[in-house]
């Protein structure tokens, strides 16, 4: 008996709970990387929205005369790029019934002139960074860029999770999952600048929010990681840079002012105004503000038509109407129904306890999410919010909205273990269905969305030159998603959010919090 007890104690000393959790965290990060790479391989080169434009901008970043051979055709400066990233090679674009097999007739050795490149509409940082990854093999370069985007997201956001106060990790992880499945993950694993916009805005918001709760060295490390996120956002898109201002405003409205947060407030102010400057310095700034537009007179009928389109626009962040690819990978049906069901769960979880500060912070984010497309439509004379405006433009704010709702001063658990596992199962099913739909779209084409085959290996017309079939990739991504999600539930204690300092509920008293509303 003594020997057995000694052996048991020795085993516990060799594998204490802290060590097991560190090992579990490392394994979870690895699983998330595998999932991300799986999403990378779901789409061919050029498969994301406007990829001909973004890949052309990566191959020929500004100033284009220094990075590529140029030629003036019909008074338009065009750049010389490999034929495989030219618009003509996207032969399957907006034809869901056509697989990506038609791309196989194009060659990296052949070049073509194109006018599809950035000439000042976007920040140049994202394109210059990825230009360093350009090689002679276009396919390998495209995959490498996507994998690097996944690595950046997992490393940056994962490090923030590890450094964050344990009481806040469950809410942070839940915010990412509820907001990013499926479309957020899809864009992070793409060549689109929205990848850095999603990662950067969330990293800035979470790093800033978490640092106000952390102590000692971790406080400054989290703040530093938040600044890194702001740099990514400013290098990606003008609207993402502006979202830094929105996040900063939400934070400053959601905290009680005191001497200890002066550094955080200064960082928030500097980053916020820098974001506005970046937006105004790009072509997106004038476009978003309606410069040069002649909007029709505002009437109640026109305003009603614009406002009633907002719910559909917000649902587009989960794939409704705006699916993957060039909007030619339909996500409607079980995918969007499942994702929107999760969104409903998240909303009810988040509003179970409200404080005035939390309400102010959430209101700022929600106002940007729903209000910006409305203002855009009004200023640019558009008939509704989903003409020329895509939900992915505001998608970076969705995780921040959930973050504000979940990081609450409430002593109750976010979810029971059973509820957490139900969310894991549903989110895994949504992710699995989205991956299956993407693979089917590009390997075979989709003739009828209501009649799709299960076996992706039958009738394959296009696939990468890799030793794994489409069906095997789907099974691997699904299994790793389920394992990673389950591990995350275990790591944060089954969905529990440990009690932290309370704030007086809005319904009963004025705010007295010493902490951010989102915390």
From TrEMBL:
Biased composition (Low complexity): 505-519
Highest taxon listed in the record's lineage: Bacteria
Key words of the record: Membrane, Transmembrane, Transmembrane helix
Record protein name field: DUF2142 domain-containing protein
Organism: Actinomyces glycerinitolerans
Segments of this protein annotated with the region Disordered: 498-519
Keyword Iron-sulfur found: no
InterPro entries to which the protein is assigned, alphabetical: DUF2142_membrane
Spans through the membrane: 23-41, 143-163, 170-189, 195-212, 219-235, 241-257, 264-280, 333-352, 359-379, 391-408, 420-439, 473-492
């Amino acid at each position: 008996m003594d020997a057995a007890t000694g052996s048991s104690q020795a085993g516990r000393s060799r594998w204490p709970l802290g060590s097991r959790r560190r090992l579990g965290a490392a394994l979870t990060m690895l699983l998330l990387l595998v999932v991300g790479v799986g999403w990378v391989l779901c789409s061919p080169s050029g498969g994301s929205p406007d990829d001909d434009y973004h890949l052309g901008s990566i191959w020929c970043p500004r100033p284009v005369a220094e990075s590529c051979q140029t030629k003036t055709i019909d008074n338009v400066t065009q750049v010389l790029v490999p034929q495989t990233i030219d618009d003509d090679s996207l032969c399957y674009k907006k034809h869901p019934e056509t697989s990506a097999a038609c791309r196989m007739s194009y060659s990296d050795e052949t070049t073509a002139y194109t006018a599809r490149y950035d000439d000042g509409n976007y920040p140049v940082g994202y394109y210059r960074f990825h230009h360093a990854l350009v090689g002679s093999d276009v396919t390998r370069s495209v995959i490498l860029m996507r994998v690097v985007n996944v690595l950046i997201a997992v490393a940056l956001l994962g490090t923030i999770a590890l450094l964050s106060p344990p009481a806040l990790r469950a809410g942070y992880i839940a915010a990412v999952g509820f907001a990013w499945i499926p479309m957020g993950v899809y864009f992070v694993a793409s060549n689109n600048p929205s990848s850095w916009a999603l990662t950067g805005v969330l990293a800035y918001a979470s790093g800033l929010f978490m640092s106000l709760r952390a102590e000692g060295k971790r406080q400054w490390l989290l703040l530093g990681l938040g600044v890194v996120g702001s740099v990514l956002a400013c290098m990606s898109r003008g609207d993402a840079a502006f979202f830094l201002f929105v996040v900063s405003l939400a934070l400053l409205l959601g905290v009680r002012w005191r001497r200890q947060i002066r550094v955080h407030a200064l960082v928030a102010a500097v980053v916020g105004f820098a974001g506005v400057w970046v937006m105004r310095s790009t072509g997106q700034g004038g476009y978003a503000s309606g410069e040069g537009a002649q909007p029709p007179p505002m009437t109640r009928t026109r305003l009603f038509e614009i406002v009633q389109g907002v719910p559909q626009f917000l649902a587009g962040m989960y794939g409704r109407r705006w699916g993957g690819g060039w909007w030619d990978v339909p996500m409607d049906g079980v995918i969007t129904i499942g994702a929107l069901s999760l969104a409903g769960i998240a909303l009810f979880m988040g509003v179970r306890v409200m404080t005035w500060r939390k309400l102010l912070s959430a209101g700022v984010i929600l106002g940007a999410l729903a209000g910006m497309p409305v203002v855009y439509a009004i200023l640019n004379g558009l008939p509704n919010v989903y003409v020329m405006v895509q939900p992915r433009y505001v998608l970076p704010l969705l995780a921040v909205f959930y973050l504000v709702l979940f990081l609450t001063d409430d002593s109750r658990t976010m979810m029971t273990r059973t509820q957490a596992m139900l969310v894991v199962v549903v989110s895994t099913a949504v992710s699995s269905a989205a991956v299956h739909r993407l693979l089917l779209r590009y390997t075979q084409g989709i003739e009828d969305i209501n009649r799709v085959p299960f076996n992706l290996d039958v009738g394959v017309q296009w696939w990468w030159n890799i030793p794994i079939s489409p069906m095997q990739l789907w099974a691997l991504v699904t299994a790793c998603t389920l394992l990673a999600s389950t591990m995350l539930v275990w790591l944060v204690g089954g969905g529990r959010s440990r009690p932290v300092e309370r704030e007086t509920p809005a319904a009963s008293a004025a705010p007295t919090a010493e902490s951010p509303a989102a915390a």
